[in-house]
Structures are given as C-alpha cells and as structure tokens.
C-alpha cells in the first residue's frame, strides 16, 4: 500500500497556480456581464451592466452606434475666445489699414497698423481676463448666497425649488421630493461651507470634491445655469483672445511691408483678407456645429466676409471723404 501510494504521488502532474498579477490583469480587461432588458424582474441589474445588445441581431451596444453627424466639437469656451480674437483681428486692423490707405503712404499704414495691432492684442487679452474674472466673482457670490438660503430654508421649500427645476422636464413631485432629500443629505454630509470658498476649490471640483455635492451646486448649475470658472481659465482666455487678435491682425498688414504704394497694397490685402475670412467663416461653421449641410458652410463663409468687407469699406470711405472735403 505504501509503495503504491508513493508511486502514484511521484507520477502526478504538477499544475502551477496562476500568478496574482495575471489574475488582476485578466479581471481588469474582462468585460462586465451584460443583463438583457428583456430578462425577468426577479433581480435588478446594476446600471453599468444593463444593456439591450442581446436583443439586437448585430449585438452592438447603443453607445457604439454612429449617428449621422459624429463630429467632435472643441470646448465652446475656447472656440468663443478664438472667434472673438480672430474675427476682431481680421476686421479691425483690416478696416484701419484700408482707411489709412487713402493717404497713399504704405509706411504710414504699417506704422499705424502695427501700433493698433499691438495695443489691440493687449487690450483684447486683458478684456478676456477681466471678463472671465468677473464671471468667476459673480458665481462665487451666487454660491455664497445660495448656500446661505439653503441652510436657512426648510425641506419643504427646497423640495419646491427642486421640483421647479425638474418639473418642466417631466419629473413628478414624488421623484423631485426624493431628489431633494438626497441632495439635502449630501449637503449636510459634505461639510461644504459656501461662505468661505477656498482658492483650490475650483481646481478640485473636476476631481469629484465634496463641494460638488448637495443642493447648492444643483440649484446653481440647473436652476441658475451657472458653473464655476477655474483660475486657469482666466489666463487661457486672455492668451487665446490676445493671440487670436494678433494672428488675425497681421494678415491685412502683410502686403504693405512689400509694396510701397498703399493703394496697390490695399488691393492685395483685400484679396488675401477676403480669402482668409472665407476660410475662417467655413471653419467656424464647422467647429461650432452651425453648418449642417453645404449651404450652412456657404452662409458661414459669406457672412463672415461680408462683416469684414463692410467695416473696411466704411473706414476707407470715411478717410477718402475727409481727404476730399474742404476740412483743413
């Protein structure tokens, strides 16, 4: 018996145990189980695993389906600043150079255009910074005011305010009351003090800080339509608007550096600036999502060029009228 047992033990196949790292890696890449929407209601599937792909013939999840227009738009704040800077840069210096061209001296146009271009870029950048700063200060005031109002109001008043936000989109009163109670509980647990906002709060909100939870952020975002402005947004806005103005404004000035006669340089400047305005209008219609078809791009390009052309024609006509008048 003993020898037989020893022989069977020695001839047994050794099976290595799986490595702990391999098990964790395989569990990480393993897709979660999918619960069909047509399954029985004996157990409630978690939201992360609830899908209707099993009932489709192709087995594709709805989030993987492509729509007719799958453009990925850029941050609207960045697009707004770029449009403000470029549109003003292409229009104002172009109108100024067109007006100064009536004097007939390209050197005068270059000196005046560069002075306006540098001053305008700095002014536009500072204006973008101050505008974002004012928006941030306004939000912080509303946050302190809303937090104080939430703390001194009863739960009934908060339920009415939550339902005033959710009711128009189809949420009934019982669901609104449940949401209000959950948000009030989250606000009490978070310990957020809206009266003393910390400098790092706005930088940490995107990371899921507790100050995002509760009735105060809910009423600000969905009731007032206000969101906090991070401090870095002030500098990004200033840089984007200023550089946009500088890059756009240098284009109408380029011909005057190489052509001594201002009127001849104006013709080349009109052609170059007109082409750039057309391209800018087309790209703007694309990145903002305004253009849905070919005519949308055409309208975006033509309207942008028309604004710049009208401003330049008005400035040039004013200078010519002053020069030909009897004003000394």
Description:
It is a single chain. The chain is mostly helical and 328 residues long. It is built from 11 helices and no strands. α9 runs antiparallel to α10. The chain is elongated. The protein starts with a helix and ends with a helix. 27% of the residues are buried. Mean pLDDT is 77; it is low at 1-13, 23-29 and 193-210.
Beta-strand percentage range: under 5%
Number of E strands: 0
Q: What's the total helix number?
A: 11
Rg calculated over all Cα atoms? 32 Å
Q: What's the helix-strand series?
A: HHHHHHHHHHH
The helix/strand class is: mainly alpha
Name the average pLDDT. Answer: 77
Task: Summarize the model shown.
This protein is 67% helix and 0% strand. The protein is mainly α.
Keywords, separated by commas or semicolons:
328 residues, mainly alpha, 11 helices, elongated, disordered N terminus
Layout of secondary structure:
Blueprint: H1 2-10, H2 20-29, H3 76-100, H4 106-152, H5 155-166, H6 173-190, H7 201-204, H8 215-223, H9 231-258, H10 262-287, H11 294-324
């Amino acid at each position: 018996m003993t020898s037989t047992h020893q022989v069977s033990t020695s001839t047994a196949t050794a099976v290595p145990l799986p490595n702990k790292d391999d098990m964790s890696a395989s569990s990480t890449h393993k897709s979660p189980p999918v619960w069909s929407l047509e399954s029985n209601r004996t157990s409630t599937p978690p939201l992360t695993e609830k899908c209707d792909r099993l009932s489709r013939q192709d087995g594709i999840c709805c989030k993987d389906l492509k729509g007719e227009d799958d453009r990925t738009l850029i941050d609207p704040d960045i697009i707004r600043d770029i449009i403000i800077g470029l549109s003003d840069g292409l229009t104002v210096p172009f109108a100024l150079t067109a007006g100064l061209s009536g004097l007939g001296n390209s050197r005068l146009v270059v000196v005046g255009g560069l002075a306006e271009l540098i001053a305008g870029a700095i002014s536009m950048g500072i204006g973008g910074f101050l505008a974002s700063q004012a928006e941030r200060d306004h939000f912080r005031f509303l946050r302190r005011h809303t937090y104080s109002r939430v703390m001194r109001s009863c739960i009934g008043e908060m339920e009415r305010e939550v339902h005033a936000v959710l009711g128009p989109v189809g949420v009934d009163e019982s669901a609104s009351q449940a949401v209000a109670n959950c948000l009030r509980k989250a606000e009490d647990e978070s310990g957020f003090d809206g009266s003393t906002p910390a400098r790092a709060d706005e930088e940490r909100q995107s990371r899921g800080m507790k100050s995002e939870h509760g009735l105060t952020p809910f009423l600000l975002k969905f009731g007032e339509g206000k969101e906090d402005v991070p401090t870095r947004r002030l500098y990004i806005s200033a840089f984007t608007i200023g550089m946009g103005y500088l890059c756009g404004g240098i284009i109408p000035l380029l011909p005057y550096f190489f052509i001594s006669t201002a009127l001849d340089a104006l013709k080349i400047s009109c052609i170059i600036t007109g082409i750039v305005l057309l391209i800018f209008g087309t790209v703007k219609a694309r990145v903002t999502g305004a253009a849905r078809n070919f005519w949308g791009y055409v309208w975006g390009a033509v309207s942008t060029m028309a604004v710049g052309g009208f401003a330049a024609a008005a400035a040039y006509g004013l200078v010519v009228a002053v020069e030909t008048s009897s004003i000394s």
